[in-house]
Amino acid sequence: METKEMEMLYEKAANILNEMIPEAWNKILLYTEVSEEGRKVYIFIITPAT
Q1: Where in the sequence is the domain holding 19, given as residue range(s)?
Q2: Reported pTM
Q3: Which residues pair with 46 in a beta bridge?
Q4: How many domains, in total, are found in the chain?
Q5: For the CA atoms of 22, 31, 39, 33, what is the dihedral angle to 10 degrees?
Q6: HEC states along the chain?
Q7: Using one digit for the tens of pLDDT, what is the confidence trace for 1-21?
Q8: At the N or C end, where does the chain have fewer CB atoms within 10 A?
């Protein structure tokens, strides 16, 4: 996949995650894996310490 296309996909994912998370956050860590056996997605949300 071309770099420009990947950048567009990451930006789209970031916008969707931003809309889905109802509270303030500092960082989102996103790990995805696609293989012949299946797909995995892990999302870690780092929130501000209060």
Answers
A1: 3-46
A2: 0.58
A3: 27
A4: 1
A5: 160
A6: CCHHHHHHHHHHHHHHHHHHCCCCCCEEEEEEEEECCEEEEEEEEECCCC
A7: 678 888 898 889 888 888 888
A8: C
